[in-house]
């Protein structure tokens, strides 16, 4: 009996709503959406989109090359999440020789998403997410340390900020991993304050202590790259560090994509008069973030590290091996490839590479080259060309700045030299901004 | 909410378009999320990029009582959207404290855009009624900012305003930089200043050839500069909260690398602007041809509900294109392809 009345009531309400809509249509009137109806309309829209998506998928499955297949982005289209994964990047413009192991391939562990479970994700979130007042401790350390100029004197007050951010991060991490992180990074900061230099092995250790927390942070990974790039290293050692950094940066990209899908990590302040439970951080990690990031990881690349500040080169002979993402691939004579900042080149015997504008560059027997040091390997004529463009940009010529952007790996050392010489020249701010695109 | 966000963020543009179609079919209109009021055309600076050409008080600006009755009370009736007060320089209005106090008493959240020079004078107002968001203009390092703004010490005043507002409890203070041809290549020098200023985030706006800006079209950044700035902003987001504002348009799937939420042009859809004289405009344009009515003639509720029709039907014309900034597209200056086109091509 009661149910009968409910049904009738529901029917009457629906009828009234329909009548209101019809009346509005007839009179050409519009009405403000009420705050109670707004979520219902949003839900309805979500439902429609969901059903449409399912229908499209089904259609795509039924008809090979149907709509779903068409929507998959081709090279040069918008969506980075499909397609251009590390393997795709690695083999773009490169031919593989099956079974061949042409150079000093590094020994990397299996390529798995570094956050193993929800607990690890929670620990990561505590290190990177802000609490509504301050940025996360990872971001604070990055902001203090990454922009710190080379050869900053030990008395500079900015080192205090670095130390404070470092201690806060180690405290937030806690445990043996936190202590190991503190010890390693403190030592690193002391070396920098003293104006000393590290080894590749020490920088590998910095990365290891970071990842053990687990602190996945693109800014700090970029910092490790920047510190390691000018240091001398063997091919295997260099390729191993770059391979690890590539995975680290891919994981950061996957987490970013995951958050865009699931919603961001949110902070809610503790509002009770009672003390919060032990370990309470106020952070809410959205459900499904781990799954989303894991699913993105295999297809993610290293972001701007994979796509920008590259140099297009041609191998003129078959003596050069490209070390990328933990793999070694022999370049064929005449083969064009993009040299990225996370790549290394190794030549077993003296070899040559060519850039379309800047000309030849040479690699001696056993040489290990990277995007950092290709500039000095150019012929004197090529180096002069770079120098002229840097000088023009420093005079304030806009076109020169854009030309330099296209050859950043070959030009960045010359840009640094020019900036050290004339930091106040009219075009120097532009060159500094350009350098950020190489260093970060 | 997590589920809704997840579903929504996964297909935000599609959901938005579907929702728009549904609302259109049901003859319903969304409530605004934010309404900006140009409190005055008065300003004591003469910035060449000023979209409102601010300087002297405009003839027929809304009086205190009109502002309270025709703007604040109407916003309450519209469901209490965020009340954004801008200018000119809003703090040159003598009655601003009264209007803010009334808005707060009605339960309205308020936000403001200011050059910052007068913030210390209003400290007590900010302490009593801290805005939920305050944007302070910062165009470059001290020398460049002061030159651009035409007043010595305006850079120091802007930095002081950021500190004052944080001390007064403003939860989000944004350093806002309008990217022009002159400062686009100087952002690396500005970044440390912004990061150390105490601001919570850095909003990068784009120059629009509107108002006084129309007389200085040479300030429009080049496509190459736009690409470099976008690439710079993307990198710095790992260190500081940098956001490309709406004038940049959509970066498509790459939006996640440049902003916190997917791009959505709110003009006439979820936001509008009330000019100093009461004209209701879709966005911060000063072109009165775009006016949908004046709050002196019709209630804001009525203008919002019946106006802006061209923005609310999915699928035709630039006004319903959710991928461009309407204002930039209107000025023949769509920046999306210029800024992100090449980045996207490289990225995939």
From TrEMBL, chain A:
Alphabetically ordered keywords of this record: Membrane, Transmembrane, Transmembrane helix
Span list, region Disordered: 60-108
Sequence ranges of Basic and acidic residues compositional bias: 60-73
Transmembrane annotation, as ranges: 30-51
Top-level division of the source organism's lineage: Bacteria
Name of the protein this chain belongs to: Uncharacterized protein
Native species: Nannocystis bainbridge
From TrEMBL, chain B:
Signal peptide: none
Domain Radical SAM core, residue spans: 28-239
One protein family per Pfam: Radical_SAM
Domain of life from the UniProt record: Bacteria
Keyword presence, Iron: yes
CDD domains for this protein: Radical_SAM (cd01335)
Keywords, sorted A to Z: 4Fe-4S, Iron, Iron-sulfur, Metal-binding, S-adenosyl-L-methionine
Cofactor needs: [4Fe-4S] cluster
Protein name: Radical SAM protein
Annotated organism of origin: Nannocystis bainbridge
């Amino acid at each position: 009996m009661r149910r009968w009345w409910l049904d009738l009531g529901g029917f009457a309400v629906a009828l009234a709503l329909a009548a209101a809509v019809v009346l509005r249509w007839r009179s050409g009137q519009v009405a403000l959406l009420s705050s109670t109806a707004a979520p219902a309309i949003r839900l309805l829209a979500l439902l429609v989109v969901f059903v449409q998506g399912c229908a499209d998928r089904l259609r795509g499955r039924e008809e090979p090359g149907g709509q779903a297949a068409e929507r998959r982005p081709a090279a040069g289209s918008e969506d980075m999440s499909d397609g251009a994964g590390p393997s795709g990047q690695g083999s773009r413009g490169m031919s593989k020789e099956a079974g061949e192991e042409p150079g000093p391939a590094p020994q990397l562990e299996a390529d798995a998403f570094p956050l193993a479970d929800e607990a690890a994700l929670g620990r990561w979130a505590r290190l990177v997410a802000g609490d509504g007042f301050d940025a996360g401790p990872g971001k604070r350390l990055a902001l203090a340390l990454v922009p710190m100029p080379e050869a900053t004197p030990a008395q500079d007050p900015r080192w205090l900020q670095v130390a404070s951010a470092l201690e806060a991060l180690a405290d937030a991490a806690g445990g043996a991993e936190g202590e190991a992180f503190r010890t390693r990074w403190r030592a690193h900061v002391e070396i920098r304050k003293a104006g000393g230099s590290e080894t590749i092995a020490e920088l590998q250790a910095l990365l290891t202590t970071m990842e053990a927390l687990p602190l996945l942070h693109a800014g700090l990974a970029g910092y490790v790259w920047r510190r390691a790039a000018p240091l001398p290293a063997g091919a295997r050692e260099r390729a191993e560090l770059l391979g690890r950094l590539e995975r680290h940066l891919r994981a950061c990209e996957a987490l970013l994509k995951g958050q865009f899908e699931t919603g961001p990590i949110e902070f809610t302040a503790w509002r009770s008069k009672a003390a919060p439970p032990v370990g309470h951080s106020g952070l809410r990690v959205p459900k499904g973030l781990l799954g989303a990031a894991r699913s993105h990881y295999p297809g993610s690349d290293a972001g701007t590290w994979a796509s920008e500040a590259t140099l297009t080169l041609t191998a003129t002979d078959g003596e050069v091996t490209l070390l990328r993402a933990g793999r070694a691939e022999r370049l064929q004579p005449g083969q064009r490839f993009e040299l990225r900042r996370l790549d290394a080149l190794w030549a077993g015997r003296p070899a040559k590479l060519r850039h379309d504008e800047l000309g030849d560059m040479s690699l001696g027997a056993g040489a290990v080259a990277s995007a950092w040091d290709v500039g000095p390997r150019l012929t004197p004529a090529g180096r002069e060309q770079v120098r002229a463009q840097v000088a023009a940009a420093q005079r304030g010529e806009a076109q020169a700045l854009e030309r330099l952007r296209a050859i950043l790996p070959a030009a960045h050392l010359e840009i640094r030299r020019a900036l050290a010489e004339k930091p106040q020249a009219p075009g120097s701010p532009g060159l500094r901004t350009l350098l950020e695109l190489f260093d970060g | 909410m997590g589920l809704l966000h997840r579903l929504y963020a996964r297909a935000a543009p599609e959901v938005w378009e579907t929702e728009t179609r549904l609302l259109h079919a049901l003859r319903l209109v969304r409530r605004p999320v934010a309404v900006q009021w140009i409190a005055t055309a008065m300003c004591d600076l003469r910035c060449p990029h000023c979209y409102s050409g601010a300087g002297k008080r405009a003839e027929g600006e809304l009086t205190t009582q009109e502002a309270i009755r025709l703007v604040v009370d109407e916003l309450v009736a519209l469901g209490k959207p965020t009340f954004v007060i801008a200018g000119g320089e809003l703090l040159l209005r003598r009655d601003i404290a009264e209007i803010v106090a009334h808005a707060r008493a009605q339960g309205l959240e308020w936000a403001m855009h200011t050059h910052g020079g007068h913030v210390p004078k209003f400290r007590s107002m900010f302490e009593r009624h801290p805005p939920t968001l305050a944007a302070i203009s910062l165009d470059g390092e001290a020398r460049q900012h002061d030159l651009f703004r035409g007043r010595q010490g305006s850079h120091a005043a802007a930095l002081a305003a950021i500190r004052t507002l944080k001390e007064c409890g403003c939860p989000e203070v944004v350093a806002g930089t309008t990217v022009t041809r002159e400062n686009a290549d100087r952002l690396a020098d500005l970044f440390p200043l912004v990061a150390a200023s105490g601001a919570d985030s850095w909003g990068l706006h784009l120059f629009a050839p509107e108002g006084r800006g129309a007389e200085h079209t040479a300030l429009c950044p080049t496509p190459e500069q736009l690409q470099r700035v976008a690439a710079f902003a993307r990198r710095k987001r790992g260190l500081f909260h940098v956001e490309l504002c709406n004038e940049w348009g959509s970066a498509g799937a790459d939006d996640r690398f440049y902003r916190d939420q997917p791009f959505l042009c709110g003009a006439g859809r979820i936001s509008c602007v009330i000019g100093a004289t009461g004209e209701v405009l879709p966005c911060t344009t000063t072109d009165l041809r775009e006016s949908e009515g004046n709050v002196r003639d019709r209630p804001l509720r009525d203008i919002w509900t019946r106006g802006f029709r061209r923005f609310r039907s999915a699928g035709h014309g630039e006004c319903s294109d959710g991928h461009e900034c309407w204002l930039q597209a209107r000025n023949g200056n769509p920046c999306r392809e210029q800024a992100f086109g090449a980045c996207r091509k490289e990225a995939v």
